Structure formats: structure tokens, C-alpha cells
Automatic annotation (TrEMBL):
Organism this protein belongs to: Eggerthia catenaformis OT 569 = DSM 20559
Protein name: Extracellular solute-binding protein
Record bears the keyword NADP: no
Cross-referenced Pfam families: SBP_bac_1 (PF01547)
Keywords of this entry: Cell membrane, Lipoprotein, Membrane, Palmitate, Signal
Domain of life of the source: Bacteria
Lipoprotein keyword on record: yes
Length: 430
């Protein structure tokens, strides 16, 4: 009898515990918590003053709109450690619900289904419209025709120009300059200025063969990563021109240090670098010995350069995907958030409305740039003439391999002989 009563009492206690736990779990007033993954510092490897400002603003606005949801994050993760940190979280099953995608990891994370497919959200949520975005920025989050991420911030590449050197040589650059113009100017700029038999003024530094390929509108792979085109006519033209420009400096390796000293006419520079080093205070410690500015890259087609875009995504294993989607949407599509991001960071907003707003126009006017070339029109022209790298799983691996073989063949002056072999090697590794 006593034993029977003890069993009934134990069952009653267990039922009470489960009932209370159930009330706590299903209580609509109980706060949910979504975790956000991001790193401190700039996405573009330039100095940044307040890394937490924008994420804290987003969290504050989100929690005000959704008081039943709390947002948490782990601070102090550097960009260099972030990819490893996120990988460990994903493998252990504790991935953040929303996170910035590490640079270079988008293809892998998309192909392994670590990211939530956003297509259904986009079809049913009329609060976000891809037409509000720059095309290339939006497409950076697409993999195999599926939208796996939304763009957060973009960073195009421009050509930095030493205006003093060009003025000294009486050279003017057309806004629609092409690769032939580019070569002729570099050729004219490369010279021995003091007649000691040594070249001491150069046309270019920091320009890559990949940028030359982009300038000719050549494609190295098809969109699905099933074919390679390293032996195509356009790629041959691009690499031949790159080799010609590179050979102007003979055997000397022209570096950014030479540009800093005022000895080089051109150097590719991201917009983030321009916005960092053009105004005070960084201007006094870098590129301060000559007058300089940035213009669109030379090109034989309308796509003048590759665009880098930081992306945000939802974990496919998130328990709060609806809440995560609202946070993701706020980061990417909210005009106030994107306006603040543009003004406090160094890249470009992914929203056309922000980059054409009166606030942006006013901000650029008061940003202490010596010249006024960085205006709304210039930025929009650059952003509308960019392209993305192909999106397939082995792209980064194959490009590292291609870079090794092409750089070696250029150094050995054997590109024409080896390009077919490079094509064969890359094709066999697809």
C-alpha cells in the first residue's frame, strides 16, 4: 500500500515537472534567442574604428520591433579566426542562426547545404525586392540558381592614379579608356628620368592577370563549373596584354612601396582603401607625397572589374528560421541600417536607394576628400559595371591552381606554349 502510494506520488511529481516545463517551452511570452555570428574589424582589410557600432544598432532596432526575441553574439572574433570559428560551430551543431559568411567560403557552405535556401522566403515576403539592389551585389548570394545569402556591403575596385605624374607627362585619361589606351600610357610612363641607365618611373603596380581577363570580358569557366576556357581567344588576348604591360618594367618587381613614393602612375585600389586613405588622418601617413585620385578600371567591355560583397545567411539547422529571416532582412534591406553602414564603414551600400539618397550626396561632400571625383554618379557607374566570380564548389581551389601555373608560365615567358596544357590540367580537375 505504501509502495503503491509512493509510485503514485512519484508519477504525480513527474507529471507536474513535465507540465511546468511544457508551459515554459510553449509559453508565448517566453523570449526566444537567436545567435548572430560576425567578426570584429573591416571586411576589406583596412582600419576600422568601431566594429560593434553597426551590429549593435541592428540588434537594438530588431529587439524593439520583436520584443519576444533576444539576440546574442560572441564578441572578439577576428576576421582571420572567423572562418575556423564558424566551421567548428557548424560541425558541432551550434551554428549561429544568422551569420556573416567568411570571405571565400560561400561556394563551400552553399554546396554542402549549410545555408538555408532563401527562395521561398523571397517569394512570400513582399518586404524585400531584388530590384532595390545593385545586380552584382544581389547575384553574389546566388549559387546554382538558388539564393542562399543576402548582400550586406560591397567593395568595387578602382584604378588609383598619380595625378602629378600624369600632369608632368601631359597625359589625360578618357572616362571610357580601354586596354590599348592603358598599355600606351603605361609604356609612356615607364622611363629612366635621370639618365643613369636605370628605369625609375613606372606605369603600373599591383595589377593581376585576373583583372586583365575581366577587362576583356573573358570567362574562365561556365556558370556551373563544368567547362573551362583558359585557351579561349579572349583569355589569350588578355594574358598577352598583361604580359606586355608587365614586361615594361623589365625584371624589376614594381610594388606598392614604389607607388607610395610617387614613382608609379597606376595601382588598383578598392573603394574601401580609397575611403580609408584619402581623408585625414590616414592621408598624412600614406600617399601624402603627391596628388592622387581614383577612376574606373580600364576595360574593353562594360564589366570593368570584379566586385567583392560581404554576405549574410541563415543556418540550415536554425531552430528559429522565421526570426532569423527577419533579422537577415533587416541587415540587408533596411534603408536606415544601410545608410548608417555606408557612412560608418568603408564599402558601398548594396541598396541603390541609399547610394542615390540626399544623405549620401551630402555625406560625400563633407567627407574631406580633396577631389570630388568620388561622387554619387561615379560610384553608381562603377557599381553598375561590375561582375561576380563564378559560383561553384571547386572554383577557389581551381583558381589557386590556375594562378600558380599561369604566373609560372608568365615568369618563364612560355605562356603561349603552356596555355593548352594549363587548360587540360584545369579541365581534368573540374
Amino acid at each position: 500500500m505504501i509502495k503503491h502510494m509512493k509510485n503514485k506520488l512519484m508519477i504525480a511529481c513527474l507529471c507536474t515537472v513535465f507540465f511546468i516545463a511544457g508551459l515554459m517551452y510553449f509559453d508565448p511570452g517566453r523570449k526566444k534567442t537567436i545567435r548572430v555570428g560576425f567578426y570584429v574589424g573591416s571586411s576589406w582589410n583596412v582600419p576600422e574604428g568601431n566594429s560593434y557600432h553597426i551590429i549593435q544598432e541592428i540588434i537594438k532596432k530588431y529587439e524593439q520591433k520583436y520584443p519576444h526575441v533576444k539576440v546574442s553574439y560572441e564578441g572578439g572574433i577576428t576576421k582571420s579566426d572567423y572562418s575556423r570559428w564558424l566551421s567548428e560551430k557548424i560541425i558541432s551543431g551550434y551554428s549561429p542562426d544568422v551569420f556573416i559568411i567568411p570571405e571565400g567560403d560561400f561556394n563551400l557552405l552553399s554546396s554542402t547545404k549549410a545555408l538555408e535556401n532563401l527562395d521561398n522566403y523571397l517569394k512570400t515576403d513582399y518586404g524585400i525586392n531584388r530590384r532595390n539592389y545593385f545586380d552584382t551585389s544581389w547575384e553574389s548570394g546566388t549559387y546554382d540558381s538558388i539564393q542562399y545569402a543576402l548582400p550586406f556591403e560591397s567593395n568595387p575596385v578602382m584604378m588609383c592614379v598619380n595625378k602629378d605624374l600624369l600632369k608632368k607627362e601631359n597625359i589625360q585619361i578618357s572616362s571610357s579608356w580601354n586596354m590599348d589606351d592603358f598599355y600606351k600610357i603605361c609604356q609612356k610612363m615607364t622611363k629612366d628620368t635621370n639618365n643613369d641607365g636605370i628605369i625609375d618611373q613606372y606605369g603600373l603596380c599591383g595589377y593581376s592577370w585576373q583583372q586583365a581577363v575581366s577587362a576583356y570580358g573573358a570567362e574562365l569557366f561556365d556558370s556551373g563549373g563544368t567547362q573551362a576556357f583558359f585557351n579561349s581567344q579572349k583569355v589569350k588576348y588578355a594574358l598577352t596584354m598583361y604580359s606586355k604591360i608587365k614586361s615594361l618594367s623589365k625584371q624589376y618587381n614594381v610594388t606598392s612601396d614604389d607607388f607610395d613614393k610617387g614613382h608609379v602612375a597606376f595601382m588598383p585600389m578598392s573603394l574601401a582603401e580609397y575611403r580609408t586613405y584619402k581623408p585625414y588622418p590616414y592621408r598624412v601617413s600614406k600617399y601624402s607625397k603627391f596628388s592622387w585620385d581614383c577612376i574606373p578600371m580600364p576595360s574593353n567591355n562594360h564589366n570593368k572589374g570584379l566586385l567583392k560583397t560581404s554576405l549574410v545567411a541563415i543556418s540550415s539547422n536554425s531552430s528559429y528560421k522565421k526570426e532569423a529571416w527577419e533579422f537577415l532582412k533587416l541587415m540587408s534591406s533596411d534603408n536606415d541600417i544601410q545608410q548608417n553602414l555606408f557612412e560608418t564603414s568603408q564599402g558601398v551600400s548594396v541598396l541603390k536607394s541609399v547610394m542615390n539618397s540626399p544623405q549620401t550626396k551630402s555625406f560625400l561632400k563633407r567627407s574631406a576628400f580633396e577631389e570630388k571625383s568620388l561622387d554619387i554618379k561615379t560610384i553608381n557607374t562603377i557599381m553598375n559595371n561590375t561582375k561576380n566570380e563564378p559560383k561553384f564548389k571547386k572554383y577557389d581551389e581551381l583558381m589557386r591552381k590556375a594562378d600558380y601555373y599561369i604566373t609560372k608560365s608568365l615568369d618563364d615567358n612560355s605562356l603561349e606554349l603552356e596555355l593548352s596544357e594549363i587548360q587540360r590540367i584545369i579541365t581534368n580537375n573540374l
